Amino acid sequence: MASATKGRPAHAEKQKEVDRLNDRFKRAEVAILAEVRGLTVDKVTQLRADLRKGKAELKVVKNTLAKRALAGTKYESLKDKFKGPVAVALSFGDVVFPAKTLDEFVRSNDGKGLKIIGGSLAGKALSAADVKDLAALPSLEVGRSMLLGMFMQPAAAMARLLDAYEKKLGGGKKDEPKPAEAAPAAEAPAAEAPKT
Question: Which of 32, 35, 88, 135 would be a feasible disulfide site paired with 119, CB 3.0-4.6 Å?
Fold first, then answer.
């Protein structure tokens, strides 16, 4: 009887963890799975810090809890990939950032310690090659600036065209008198006023 009572708090803690994971999976824009073997605590801590810079997180989870947490989310298709020591990178904003960060980490460590095994983007399954392709895309900030540049390009071209046309016709600003020349002219009529 004592062991049954003792087991209940552990079950409640596991259920809380499943609920927390389920909430994260529901809010995440992208989930990337990686096999983690032989990484030092320092390297994992550094990877987590790098991911946090882009509002992403890395969580090493128990496979059975992760499979339960995936239920009712757009990432249910990932259940089969939870074999062995698996870490999940979740991003709640930029979908490229975690892929780029994990890919850089793998390259900087010569592929040792972390192996990307796949993921899912908005419910669409991604292979390891797809994640690598995702990492090759520009980041959200760079993409926005590129898009803004594309929007601004026609307006800038039109402004240059109108400016060139105006110069060709001889338009533009007329030569206005300089402030130094305008001041004596304004004083001269005041000096000519008759004295009474």
Answer: 32
pLDDT in tens, 131-185: 888 888 776 677 677 777 777 788 778 788 888 878 888 765 555 555 655 555 5
| Residue in the block written with tokens 């419910």 | 123
- Chain CA centroid to CA 14, Å: 31
Question: 103 with 135: CB under 8 angstroms?
Answer: yes
Tens of pLDDT along 29-50? Answer: 899 999 988 888 889 899 999 9
Separation CA 105–CA 93 (nearest Å): 20
Q: What is the mean pLDDT of residues 79-103?
A: 89
> How many CA atoms are closer than 13 Å to the CA of 152, on its beta-carbon side?
6
Are 83 and 63 a contacting pair, CB within 8 Å? yes
> Which positions ≥6 away from 51 have C-beta within 8 Å?
57, 58, 89, 97, 98, 101
